[in-house]
Amino acid sequence: MMDQIQEEFELALGAIDDERAHDSQSMQRLHDEKAEETSKLQQAITAKDKALVEKQRLERELCQIQQQQESVNATLQDHISWHDIQPVLHQAHGELRSATTRFWDTIESLHNYRVASYLPGSGVIHGTWPDQDGPLVPLGQDTLPEFSASGDYPVATQQAPDSTNQYASLV
User: Where is this region: Disordered (predicted)?
Assistant: First the structure.
């Protein structure tokens, strides 16, 4: 009987040791799972903190952009849109071209009048010209025509126009 009790006792101790080993393994597994879950939790907290910092940065940036937009809108209230000003610019351009054309036509007319004043029969300068029936010979001082003023037109005392553009500063 003693042997039997001893045997049962050893069996009970073996069962207790097996149970302790099993419990110890379970505890180790739970401890490892806890460490793993703690690590995951720490990563999640870190990610949350980073997201919070990023959110705050984006909110500040959004606020700055909204302020800039309000500033630009306030500035642009005094400006006219291109759509509104374009027809006025086209009209002004057309009027400027017309005025420029009239200006240059007037300049050309005055230039032509000035050139024409040196031609015989222009009514500005009158004189007699030598006959051209004979052979061409160099004219001397005494063969130049006489110039006299007619009733309404003064005698032009200006020199003949140069072949250069005297209005180059206006071009």
Answer: 149-171
